[in-house]
Amino acid sequence: MHLAHYLGLLHRAQVNLADAFRQVATAHAEEPDIQHLCQQQAQRCDAHAEQLHPFVVHYAAGAPDEPDRLHSQLFTGTRTGGIGLLRDLQDLYLMAAECDITWTVVGQAAYGVRDEDLLAVVLRCEGETAVQLKWLRTRMKAAAPQALVVAD
């Protein structure tokens, strides 16, 4: 069963997203909302990873080795300035989108194996990830005019 691979992918993606949110919070602390909201989103990702962990352990038993290149690396560090903030938010958006589609795939598998507990976690966390995506999109819209039109 390959569900274990996607659970591992999702768990790692949530941990990486939490770390990236924390890095962006620190790098752009001068922005009034960034530090607080990125820290808040990092905690949400930590909670998602924590809720997934029992399923990662449960489904890992007897799973074949994980294929190479299953995990992606989307975030390589923060940048400075207005354009840096915009690019960092875009990286966070891409990472959250990876989590979002992986929640969908894992949810479909949860239906397939009739795992009601996993499905409950997926439905709750998938909705929270959608909120993260909306916030990131809205914040990028707010940052774009200043970063792209106004000269440094």
What features would you describe in this structure?
The protein is an all-alpha fold and 152 residues long. It has one domain: Ferritin (Up-down Bundle), CATH 1.20.1260. It contains four helices and no strands. α3 (81-113) runs antiparallel to α4 (116-148). The longest helix is centred in the middle third of the chain and has 33 residues, at 81-113. The chain is elongated. The mean pLDDT is 90.
Q: What is the topology?
A:
Elements: H1 3-27, H2 34-60, H3 81-113, H4 116-148
Helix pairs in contact: 1-2, 1-3, 2-4, 3-4
Q: Which descriptors apply to this entry?
A:
single chain; 152 residues; mainly alpha; elongated; Ferritin; Ferritin-like metal-binding protein YciE
Instruction: Tell me the number of helical segments per DSSP (H or I, 4 or more residues long).
Output: 4
CATH class category label: Mainly Alpha
Structural class: mainly alpha
Poorly predicted spans = none
Total beta strands: 0
Mean pLDDT: 90
How many separate structural domains? 1
Output the CATH topology. Answer: Ferritin
N-C termini distance:
53 Å
* Biggest pleated sheet: none
Helix-strand topology string: HHHH
Helical percentage: over 70%
Using the alpha-carbon principal axes, give the shape: elongated
Proportion in β-strands? under 5%
What gyration radius follows from the Cα positions, in whole Å? Answer: 17 Å
**CATH structural architecture:** Up-down Bundle
